[in-house]
Amino acid sequence: MSELSMMVTITERSKLTTFLSFYRERQVPVQFISLALGTASNETLNYLGLERSDKCVFASFVTDEKWEELRRGLRRELQIDVPGMGIAFTVPLSSIGGRRELQFLTEHQNYQKGEESTMKDTKYELLVVIANHGYSDLIMDAARGAGAAGGTVIHAKGTGMEGAEKFLGISLAAEKEMIYIVVHRDKRNEIMSAIMRDAGMASKAKSICFTLPVSAT
User: Fold this and answer.
1) Alpha-carbon distance 53 to 83, whole Å?
2) Based on C-alpha coordinates, what's the Rg of the chain?
3) CB neighbours of 212 closer than 8 A, spacing ≥ 6?
4) ∠ CA 49-51-57, rounded to 5°
5) Helix (H, G, I), strand (E, B), or coil: what is residue 128?
6) Order of all β-strands in the sheet with 54-63
7) At what angle do helices 64-76 and 16-25 cross, to 10 degrees?
């Protein structure tokens, strides 16, 4: 499944609408957006003529073909190579829970699921759960029951949720939580299954989960 990646875009908060429109026009409607702060020093901000470094972080899902299209557009139309505009990068997915969830996240992209990817000599993966706001305890209870340790919760807002009706047969709330859990590769499937069983689409949490390879811990 190495041809499908999570694309992360980080830019100034004032450019949120510009980037969101850019992705929607290129049929990448499903985004998960979090607000953040940059770490640039006051000296750097003064040099660039900027005030506080408020950021937004986009998480999307793209095929290799779509990424190449977006990368060209980001450089040509949004001048992302200019310092201060932002950065975009991709991380290959190891696995994703559920065929319908996969179709929802890759809508409008020509993607055929192949073999799930694994990196050699890695013992851990980052399990990411995207769920409706307020259900992180339910998710962590399910994960711990299957052998996971602690997790980290990030608040986010989802866009393009109207596609959920088509692929999942349900509506999804815009307010989201993203839970990051580092899991042992041997326990990955058991933990994902527990989350999907107790906090999946049949529950109020409406969780979608996937994993990213971890090269070292």
Assistant:
1) 13
2) 18
3) 6, 91, 92, 93, 94, 125, 126, 128
4) 110
5) strand
6) 87-92, 4-12, 54-63, 31-37, 152-159, 175-184, 124-132, 208-214, 95-96
7) 130
Residue type present at position 188: R
Interatomic CA distance for residues 90 and 187, integer angstroms: 25
pTM of the prediction? 0.83
Quote the tokens at residue 28: 């990448």
What is the Cβ-side half-sphere exposure of residue 125, based on CA atoms within 13 angstroms?
25
pLDDT in tens, 138-148: 999 999 999 99
Give the Cα separation of 172 and 188 in Å (integer): 25
Low-confidence spans in the chain with pLDDT less than 70: 1-2, 39-42, 44-52, 112-121, 167
What DSSP state is assigned to residue 118? -
Give the list of residues 6+ apart from residue 134 with CB closer than 8 angstroms, or none.
177
The tokens describing 87, both together, are: 């950065």
Q: DSSP 3-state assignment of 161?
A: coil
Q: Where are the alpha helices (DSSP H) in the chain?
A: 16-25, 42-48, 64-76, 99-105, 136-145, 163-168, 188-199
Q: Let me know how many helices (H) and strands (E) the chain has, helices first.
A: 7, 9
Q: Which amino acid is at 27?
A: Q
Give yes or no for a contact between 205 and 138, defined as CB atoms under 8 angstroms apart: yes
Is the separation of the CB atoms in 201 and 168 below 8 Å?
yes
Q: From its phi and psi, is residue 113 left (phi > 0), alpha (psi between -120 and 50) or beta?
A: beta
| Contacts (Cβ under 8 Å, ≥6 apart) of 14 | 54
